[in-house]
Write a structure and sequence with these properties.
Length: 127
């Protein structure tokens, strides 16, 4: 899970989703790096990359930055279970990051991420 700070209201053209407005605030993105976790995180932290996943478009913006990476070892199915839990307390960005499942979203605007730290580990990264 990437915890992302968006420093100002930002309009982003997110591929097939079109133009989305991200309000200033904190976001949680749920993903499943089933292999090569560190390489995937390194890719997300970098600004020079081919824009492929929905999250790439947001992270390519200067107003968006990863502030924390949380993770746990789990099956791919748990990605959607975690997204459902966050959906109950966060504000879903409709259709974001979930083109391969039936979830409402895998990106949520949240007020705080401390509730997630009890069930996940923090990956220390330089941002």
């Amino acid at each position: 899970m990437l915890i992302i700070q968006v420093d100002k209201d930002t309009d982003v053209n997110v591929g097939a989703l079109g133009k989305l407005t991200f309000e200033k605030g904190l976001y949680a993105y749920v993903g499943s790096a089933q292999a090569n976790l560190e390489q995937r995180i390194k890719r997300h932290l970098g600004k020079e990359k081919h824009l492929f996943w929905h999250i790439d478009y947001l992270l390519n913006e200067s107003a968006a930055r990863i502030v924390k990476v949380l993770f746990k070892q789990a099956d791919k199915t748990e990605e959607c279970e975690i997204a459902e839990v966050i959906d109950e307390i966060g504000e879903a960005v409709g259709g974001f990051g979930c083109s391969d499942c039936s979830c409402k979203s895998h990106l949520f605007r949240i007020g705080d991420y401390r509730f997630l730290q009890g069930s996940m580990r923090v990956l220390h990264v330089e941002t």
